[in-house]
Amino acid sequence: MNSIPAQAITQPSDLLKDEVWSRLKQCFDPEIPLNIVDLGLIYDVEVKDGSCVTVKMTLTSPGCHMGGQIAADIQDKILAIESAEEANVELVWDPPWHQSKISEIGRKQLGLD
Predict the structure, then answer these.
(1) Of 31, 48, 60, 73, which sits 20 to 30 A from 66 (CA to CA)?
(2) pLDDT of res. 3
(3) Where are the domains of the chain?
């Protein structure tokens, strides 16, 4: 009898989490031409109860006035996913954002490398 290893079984919450990450790459900081994932603004994505998504994110600076707009865009993109019933965006400041959080792809797109 062939059995599938437990780690090979993809859970619905894992699929949702993957889809959330994909959608987050479609969100942009209006002041920087780079998606918020490659910009390093997303610190965590958590799925609870199979359909409740919480995103922990930061901004490039505490004085950034685009935070509300970015958070609303994140919520809209998550709630557009059929299996997502709830979308919460938590703004965190620890650890503080720094340019070192920008992905290698993002650094190339911004001409930083």
Answers:
(1) 48
(2) 55
(3) 11-105
